[in-house]
Amino acid sequence: MHDVLTALEEQHAELDALLGGLDDDGWAQPTRCEGWDVADVVLHLAQTDDLARASAAGRYRERLAELAGDSAPAATVDDGAAAMVERERGVPNAELLGRWRAGAAALRSTLASSDPHRRVTWVSGELSTHTLVSTRLAECWIHTGDVAGALGVEQQLTGRLRHIARLAWRTLPYAFARDGRTMSGPVTFDLVGPDGHRWLFAPDDEPVTVIDGPGVELCLVAARRVAPQATGLRGTGPDGRAVLELVRTYA
Predict the structure, then answer these.
(1) Structural domain boundaries of the chain?
(2) pLDDT band at 181 (very low <50, low <70, confident <90, very high)
(3) Are the CB atoms for 4 and 134 separated by under 8 Å?
(4) Inter-residue contact 209 to 238 (CB < 8 Å)
(5) What is the mean pLDDT of the chain?
(6) 2-151: CATH homologous superfamily?
(7) Fewest Cβ atoms closer than 10 Å to its Cβ: which of 47, 145, 224, 247?
(8) Burial tier of 158 (Cβ tally within 10 Å: 0-12, 13-18, 19+)
(9) What pTM does this model have?
(10) pLDDT (tens digit, 9 = 90+) per residue, 65-120?
(11) CATH of domain 161-246
(12) 145 Cβ partners below 8 Å, 6+ apart?
């Protein structure tokens, strides 16, 4: 788990570099998350890092209830996240930055001392602590891109995205089940990282579907930031189209 924790720390540092020098106008810039400005995105990250820390401590449900307060029960995960942001929106920017920084550091510390194989509660099910780290890396990377785009800054493309592509591959059964579908058989990802290195994620059994192309684009598709047809990704086999339609890195 050391490698993915290091990647999470580096991702936090990338976002921190974007936020550190922002004035109030920068915090108020609209992002590609509908209805959210930069401050809202950072508040969402602070809240979900808090939830992840509670999850590792066995207090996910209790902390979720505290953050939701008297908000009406949400129909979807996205609706719930929006309600939590709405409830706390308006925190002074300097206070918000301090809260996010402290929470991110506390999260890394908590996860580093956790059993990577222990099952913990997250959103609608359970996952290992190791996978929880990967989901936090993926979400921070996604929203770092949202902030960078709002500020007109080009996001860094690094080898740590490999962890995110692997998460997308490993959670394909969840992605299919979430949509009420069944996979035809094993899937291989044969991708190329931004540094030109091959990212091969292959099952033990012979795959029936293979996805190949740029690893960064796979991560963006899984993040719902780019449509599959706008990329160089290619799917062959019975589930080629469905994988690119359903793949995701978050609940």
Answers:
(1) 2-151, 161-246
(2) very high
(3) yes
(4) yes
(5) 94
(6) dinb family like domain (1.20.120.450)
(7) 224
(8) middle
(9) 0.95
(10) 888 887 767 668 888 899 999 999 999 999 999 999 999 999 999 999 999 999 99
(11) 3.30.1050
(12) 155, 223, 225
Q: How far apart are CA 17 and CA 71, in angstroms?
A: 33
Report which of 114, 107, 124, 122 is spatially closest to residue 11, judged by C-alpha positions. Answer: 107
- Label each residue of the chain as H, E or C: CHHHHHHHHHHHHHHHHHHCCCCHHHHCCECCCCCCEHHHHHHHHHHHHHHHHHHHCCCHHHHHHHHHCCCCCCCCHHHHHHHHHHHHCCCCHHHHHHHHHHHHHHHHHHHHCCCCCCEEEECCEEEEHHHHHHHHHHHHHHHHHHHHHHHCCCCCCCCCHHHHHHHHHHCHHHHHHHCCCCCCCCEEEEEECCCCCEEEECCCCCCCEEEEEEHHHHHHHHCCCCCHHHCCCEEECCCHHHHHHHCCCCC
Containing 17, the helix (H) or strand (E) segment is helix 2-19
Measured in residues, the chain has a length of 251
The residue to which tokens 């290992």 are assigned: 128
How is residue 163 written in tokens? 């962890």
